[in-house]
Amino acid sequence: MKNYMILVALIGLFVSCGPSDKQEQKLVNLVAEWKTASEEIVSLSEKVGDQMYVFEANKEEGNNSEMISINIDGKESNCEAAYAAMKEQIDDYIEVWRENSLKVDELTNNMSMGNWSAEDDKNLKALDLEVKKSDVSVEKWNLELEELQSKCEIDMNTSSS
Predict the structure, then answer these.
(1) Distance CA 41, CA 35 (A)
(2) Model pTM?
(3) Could you tell me if 103 and 123 are in contact, meaning their C-beta atoms sit under 8 angstroms apart?
(4) Residue 73 near residue 132 (C-beta atoms within 8 A)
(5) ∠ CA 14-7-19 to the nearest 5 degrees?
(6) From CA 95, how far away is CA 148, in angstroms rounded?
(7) Distance of CA 54 to the CA centre of its chain
């Protein structure tokens, strides 16, 4: 009987260390949302790069669009500085995103091995919040990029090749 009690206690300890069905579903949802958000972030970065390329090509052709005075967040700027600032913001964000992606991978590994801890649960919640914040950030940057494209008179339908 004593051995049975020890066995039940060990099984209970093992099961309590593993993730619950609810935690597993939360992680599955997080991984799907993370993948979608990652694709959106990459797409945004590519859009910025494409517009900067067209901007630079126009500048080389003698178009003075870099001198157009624009207002960004209540501050006077020009197109060249505005694109550079946006690219820097997005590059910094991508670096943090990559670090957090490693945490998502770590959670996935921990769950698959059945080694789930209170720290993993905390990280799951934090990363879930990060993916939701990214949706807002990417949407904001896309709107800012459209505005910048318009103010700087960047025509993405023509190419300078």
Answers:
(1) 10
(2) 0.77
(3) yes
(4) no
(5) 15
(6) 23
(7) 25
Confidence of residue 57 (pLDDT cuts 50, 70, 90): confident
Full 3-state SS string of the chain: CHHHHHHHHHHHHHHHHCCCHHHHHHHHHHHHHHHHHHHHHHHHHHHHHHHHHHHHHHHHCCCCHHHCEEEECCEEEEHHHHHHHHHHHHHHHHHHHHHHHHHHHHHHHHHHHCCCCHHHHHHHHHHHHHHHHHHHHHHHHHHHHHHHHHHCCCCCCCCCC
Average pLDDT over residues 82-94: 94
pLDDT of the residue at 139: 97
How far, in Å, CA of 24 to CA of 34, rounded?
Answer: 15
Q: Has residue 161 got a pLDDT over 60?
A: no
Q: Mean of the pLDDT values across residues 50-68?
A: 75
Determine the length of the chain. 161
Question: Quick one: pLDDT at residue 120?
Answer: 94
Q: Which of left, alpha, beta for 74 (phi over 0: left; psi -120 to 50: alpha)? A: left
